[in-house]
């Protein structure tokens, strides 16, 4: 995106910029900035940096327009380019580019519309407005047939492509820190549906789950990057257990490495295995005694922690990480080993907090000893 800013900034001059813009001018000029070029066109530029800049610009433009107008750029039918647009292609996947029409000023879907009347202009109206050849009726019919009907029926003609382009460029040029600005716009708030639907089956009230808060709670409960990475793997089921390895013929048996009785799945290893259950029972007993609370934990609680309680979420994450380490070190998890592991982590966090003058935060988190 920083390269995009320099390429679109008319006040910035450099030899490398001249070379890239020359490569663009040899093809189609600046029309690609206002279009949504398919890969076949971008690859013809013979300039990897320029092609990547255009790809990034398309993503940025989609999100930036959605942020400012509340509608993605791709839904603004009137603003869409007719030429070199991957969304305006024939059945053979061939994009459109009528050079003579482009020279006459026909560039966007807006040029084919006839407001306030619905639908597109007639071919005769296009001849009067742009002085195109009367022999181009067949080209006109072919183009109209392949323009998405939603762009014609509901084009959102309140704003033009040129206005959007100029505004986006002006805003981008004025930004001092482009990477941070672009990232905040381009990052999309999303939750992997397949993973959510899988984990929702273990929750008592799936509709009441707030996954954003669950992720933040598990992320902030520890300063250890290993724990944070581990939680990411858990949520995405990115740890290969024997049940999966057996299916792809990398293990001779799908059974659990600890009990050797049941298929080794993510929930079995971390929650249901008979070797693992004593760890959770001991953990719950200590929490009841130390924190004076009485509660029962479900499989979902074991996997994702306790709502609104960072410390218990951290303890549950520690149990799972200890089991994870034991599995890949071919050791049997024990309660004594778990408490020694948690104690080591507590001492490590204490020295880090002391070094950073954050002991108050440390003692607030570790409200009781294990």
Number of separate strands: 0
Largest sheet: none
- Taken together, the total number of domains comes to 2
State Rg: 30 Å
Low-confidence stretches: none
Number of helices: 21
Distance between the termini: 49 Å
**What is the overall shape?**
elongated
- Assign the structural class, choosing from mainly alpha, mainly beta, alpha/beta, alpha+beta, or little secondary structure: mainly alpha
Mean of residue pLDDT?
89
Q: Which H/E pattern describes the elements?
A: HHHHHHHHHHHHHHHHHHHHH
- Which range best describes the helical content: under 10%, 10-25%, 25-40%, 40-55%, 55-70% or over 70%? 55-70%
Amount of beta strand: under 5%
Structural overview:
With 370 residues, this protein is an all-alpha fold. The chain has 2 domains: 185 residues, no CATH class; 173 residues, no CATH class. The protein is 57% helix and 0% strand. Helix 17 packs antiparallel against helix 19. The protein is elongated and about 85 Å long. The two termini are 49 Å apart.
């Amino acid at each position: 995106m920083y390269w995009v800013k320099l390429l679109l900034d008319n006040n910035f001059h450099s030899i490398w910029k001249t070379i890239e813009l020359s490569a663009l001018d040899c093809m189609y000029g600046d029309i690609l900035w206002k279009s949504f070029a398919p890969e076949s066109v971008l690859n013809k530029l013979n300039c990897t940096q320029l092609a990547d800049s255009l790809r990034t610009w398309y993503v940025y433009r989609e999100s930036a327009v959605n942020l400012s107008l509340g509608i993605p750029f791709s839904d603004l039918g009137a603003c869409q380019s007719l030429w070199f647009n991957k969304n305006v292609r024939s059945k053979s996947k061939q994009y459109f580019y009528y050079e003579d029409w482009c020279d006459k000023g026909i560039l966007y879907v807006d040029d084919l519309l006839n407001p306030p009347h619905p639908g597109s202009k007639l071919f005769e109206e296009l001849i009067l407005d742009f002085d195109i050849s009367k022999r181009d009726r067949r080209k006109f019919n072919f183009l109209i047939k392949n323009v998405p009907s939603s762009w014609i029926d509901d084009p959102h003609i309140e704003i033009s492509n040129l206005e959007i382009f100029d505004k986006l460029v002006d805003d981008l040029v004025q930004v001092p820190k482009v990477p941070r600005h672009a990232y905040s716009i381009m990052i999309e708030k999303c939750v992997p549906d397949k993973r959510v639907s899988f984990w929702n089956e273990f929750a008592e009230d799936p509709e009441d789950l707030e996954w954003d808060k669950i992720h933040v709670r598990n992320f902030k409960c520890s300063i250890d990057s290993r724990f944070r990475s581990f939680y990411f793997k858990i949520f995405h089921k990115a740890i290969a257990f024997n049940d999966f390895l057996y299916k792809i013929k990398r293990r001779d048996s799908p059974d659990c490495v600890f009990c050797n009785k049941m298929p080794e799945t993510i929930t079995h290893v971390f929650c249901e295995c008979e070797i693992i259950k004593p760890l959770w029972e001991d953990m719950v007993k200590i929490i009841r005694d130390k924190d004076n609370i009485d509660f029962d934990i479900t499989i979902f609680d074991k996997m994702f922690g306790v709502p609104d309680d960072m410390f218990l979420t951290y303890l549950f994450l520690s149990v799972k990480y200890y089991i994870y380490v034991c599995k890949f070190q071919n050791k049997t998890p024990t309660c004594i080993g778990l408490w020694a592991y948690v104690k080591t982590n507590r001492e490590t966090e204490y020295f880090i907090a002391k070094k950073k003058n954050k002991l108050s935060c440390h003692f607030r988190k570790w409200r009781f000893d294990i």
